């Protein structure tokens, strides 16, 4: 049926039939992250615009063209959050979490908003699960977070997620490399896209993310930070690699991996899945040792990742289906009796339902079948009741009074 109104472009409704698969993703994340000491945090869906301008970086695609920004009635500039890390660092500072034992380990799940060109796997409102460990520079934390995300994908049944791994080194080391890259880009200016050319000064590393064919060809020969790692940066990266090796988490080194946000340093990573086509990124993240300080907090090293729930759902071979109810109560005339029994069944912990649309007995049996319930209870006019096994069709007389306890015991 055509409605006058539709969900805004690039957004979608999550229907009850979709919910089981989404809940499974959240449950997998909650189980793995909870067992590793991560506590769930929720931050608002909107923040001051300045948080993202500073935190994500003015020269990034997100800040330049993808934010939903508006002025509220009080004249403040507000932005629907395009990502989760800057808000969590804001919360870490605001709640004085640097006084807690470090690192503070947090995870989250919620909607994020980016004005992007909608397509399969790319939306303007999408959902992410994410995790951040704030307050430790140890490579153990980088490895822990990467391993956790790999395990979550495996638990969900995405065995072919490929891990791409790189290191961007420290900001100081990267400054020298950026100069080298700028020089290289200027030597090939004619072959680059206009967008990349405009950002040679402000954000030369974004050239690695371009999908412009000319730029891509140039970038294949470009110098990579990964080949220039030295000193403590090199040691840190070697340690992360060795911890991943010990955990049996396979990865591919990819020096072209820079990720679209300004705040990363040292370890960066991304999980991709070839089956997803153009939008192959399942999730990714990295270390962002400078971000808390940039946002006004104490100098605090940190690592984190985010993964897109809709992309994960696309990568699942057999998404979990909604669980059917346990029992459907069918009645001839006495609707109140059926209503009362359904109440008792629900109190006993069973998922139970009945007809609420005045259907005939035959119509109710059809509904019982359609509901997928394992059992139907048929209330007879003489006060007796029958329990019907919906798959075999076997029926037997039961005492309606002891039915809730009996069915609850059978369901356990
Ligand atoms: P990013 O912060 O860009 O690295 O995003 C982290 C993850 O969120 C990506 O790997 C995707 O799985 C997901 N994601 C990002 N942008 C979108 C989008 N517009 N629509 C759906 N999923 C997205």
Q: What is the strand and helix layout of this fold?
A:
Layout: H1 16-35, E1 39-40, E2 46-48, H2 49-55, H3 61-66, E3 69-71, E4 77-80, H4 85-94, E5 104-113, E6 125-134, H5 139-156, E7 162-167, H6 171-187, H7 194-198, H8 213-219, H9 231-246, E8 252-253, E9 265-272, E10 281-287, H10 291-294, E11 302-308, H11 309-315, E12 327-331, H12 335-347, E13 352-354, H13 361-370, E14 375-379, E15 385-389, E16 395-398, H14 403-411
Parallel strand pairs: 1-5, 7-8, 12-13, 12-14
Antiparallel strand pairs: 2-4, 3-4, 5-6, 6-11, 7-9, 9-10, 10-11, 14-15, 15-16
This protein binds adenosine monophosphate (AMP).
Describe the structure.
The protein is of the alpha+beta class and 412 residues long. The chain has 2 domains: 16-169 and 229-315, Bira Bifunctional Protein, Domain 2 (BirA Bifunctional Protein, domain 2); 327-411, Anticodon-binding domain (Rossmann fold, 3-Layer(aba) Sandwich). It is 36% helix and 20% strand. It contains 14 helices and 16 strands. It has helices at residues 16-35, 49-55, 61-66, 85-94, 139-156, 171-187, 194-198, 213-219, 231-246, 291-294, 309-315, 335-347, 361-370, 403-411; strands spanning 39-40, 46-48, 69-71, 77-80, 104-113, 125-134, 162-167, 252-253, 265-272, 281-287, 302-308, 327-331, 352-354, 375-379, 385-389, 395-398. The strands form 3 sheets. The protein has an 8-stranded mixed sheet, sandwiched between helices. α1 packs antiparallel against α5, α5 (139-156) runs parallel beside α9 (231-246) and α12 crosses α14 (403-411). It is elongated and about 90 Å long. Residues 83, 114, 116, 121-123, 126, 128, 260, 281-284, 306-308, 310-311 line the site of adenosine monophosphate.
